[in-house]
Design brief:
The chain is mainly beta. It is built from two helices and 24 strands. The strands form six sheets. It has a five-stranded mixed beta sheet with strand order 1-17-16-15-14, with no helix packed on it.
């Protein structure tokens, strides 16, 4: 074959292959971290300040209007830290008496109501001992109370997942408020993956309530008698990061996959995110396929996947002024990856990923942006602490 004809044939073959690939993949394939690392921009210079030490498995933090912080410890303690970062040695009193500390279970997220200055409400998520389930069973629950001095008062139970079950795995536990006055609570599959697809089961879902615990009439399954009315989305394995997009107001979450297949998602009404029918992860030990593979009609694809897993926890959009180069990015912790992860976004697409502080602070459990525009981190350790990133 002449060189000119050979080049023409190769060009036609290349075009044909491109057309076939385009025709067979109508949806974009989720980006994977290993393909993005080389595109990450140069790190921003910052210093890491140790603010508080001596916390036992800290899980979440939130700011009170006056500048003090609240931090949960998984063992069932709520701690107060002054605005000059002095840890009160006395845990706050008046927490629910039915917190179950078992495996991954315990006290989870703390969130301050967006209108806290007026109503004083503080919200807590935790593993709640079941009154009507099997012995030793627990359920991820949501409560609210007001802080009066050194004690929580007016404690109100807003929600508890049903059915309750034994085992200390995959309880979710993140709280987020949207702009319409709703509160979201994330739930895991409790280590029983089939539950994430069962209609009369809260496990493996995101639930949406009014801030007083009432079920919104606009929830997607509220008129369906065979569904749980609190459910907003389903098909999740274990969501431990949730944040509201500062421009769109939509809920973004990430969740743990099995061996591989951690996901970043935008949670929308009535969506099924596929677990365990579809996943980018595989079975532990055997490495065999789970479900039908990575795609199924009617199930939502993730925006971004991590293979191998990083075990993400904590999630925050960065909109502050302290780090202008990070504005518009997503920040999250990595438990298994032991790093702070920054995702660079272009709309709803992840275009680059940056790993920071790898193996320097241990298992990063929570990431928050403070009122001062600085980044605050908690690490999951029996001798954990609070750190701050400052330019």
């Amino acid at each position: 074959m002449a060189m000119k004809d050979r080049k023409r044939w190769l060009g036609m073959a290349s075009m044909l292959l491109q057309c076939v690939a385009w025709a067979s993949a109508p949806e974009p394939i989720p980006t994977q971290s290993k393909d993005l690392l080389r595109n990450a921009p140069s790190p921003v210079a910052f210093q890491v300040q140790t603010l508080v030490k001596g916390l036992s498995h800290p899980w979440s933090l939130a700011w009170l209007p006056g500048g003090d912080l609240l931090i949960t410890e998984r063992e069932g303690r709520l701690r107060r830290i002054s605005r000059d970062f002095q840890l009160d040695p006395r845990p706050i009193e008046g927490l629910p008496a039915d917190i179950v500390v078992d495996g991954q279970g315990g006290l989870f997220d703390v969130a301050v109501h967006p209108d806290h200055a007026r109503n004083g409400w503080i919200y807590l998520a935790y593993a709640q001992a079941s009154k009507d389930g099997p012995r030793g069973a627990s359920a991820t629950a949501l409560v609210r109370a007001r802080l009066q001095g050194h004690r929580l008062v007016e404690l109100q139970n807003l929600f508890a997942m049903r059915p309750a079950s034994r085992g200390g795995r995959h309880l979710g536990g993140r709280i987020a408020f949207d702009r319409q006055g709703h509160v979201f609570l994330t739930l895991g599959d409790r280590g029983d993956d089939a539950r994430a697809q069962k209609p009369r089961d809260h496990a493996g879902s995101v639930i949406r309530l009014h801030d007083d615990g009432r079920v919104p009439t606009s929830n997607p399954f509220v008129q369906q008698s065979q569904q749980m009315p609190e459910v907003f989305s389903r098909g999740h394995r274990n969501i431990q990061g949730a944040a509201i997009h500062p421009q769109t107001g939509e809920l973004w979450t990430h969740e743990h996959g099995p061996q591989g297949g951690d996901e970043l998602n935008i949670v929308r009404s009535g969506r099924d995110f596929g677990w365990p029918t579809i996943t980018y992860g595989v079975n532990y030990v055997t490495g065999t396929r789970i479900g039908v593979g990575t795609r199924q009609a009617g199930m939502t694809q993730p925006l971004h996947v991590w293979v191998p897993s990083i075990a993400p926890s904590g999630l925050a959009f960065y909109e502050g002024n302290a780090f202008p180069a990070w504005r518009g990015s997503l920040l999250l912790g990595a438990l298994r990856g032991q790093s702070l992860v920054r995702l660079v976004l272009d709309g709803e697409k992840v275009v680059a990923e940056e790993r920071l502080l790898t193996q320097q602070l241990g298992r990063i459990r929570d990431v928050r942006v403070g009122p001062d525009g600085l980044v605050y981190l908690l690490n999951d350790s029996p001798d954990g602490g609070l750190w701050r990133l400052k330019p």
